[in-house]
Amino acid sequence: MLFMKSCSLSNLELGIIAASLVNYPYLHTLDVSENRLEGKDAGLSLASIIKRRMNLKGGIQTQIIIAANN
Question: Can you give the pTM of this predicted structure?
């Protein structure tokens, strides 16, 4: 679980987080609600988190992403 609710997260910062999660197979829940995310860049970052590699044994797909009030 990664909770980043209401911490003034920008598109650039979400991109950095998304890049760091590419090989992390255990993210079940992501909350990035009430931040400063908007438009195509935020969408691409969230998409890369969803499609991250899960080839390690025991990896799980992200099941919950909360992105309300951005």
Answer: 0.87
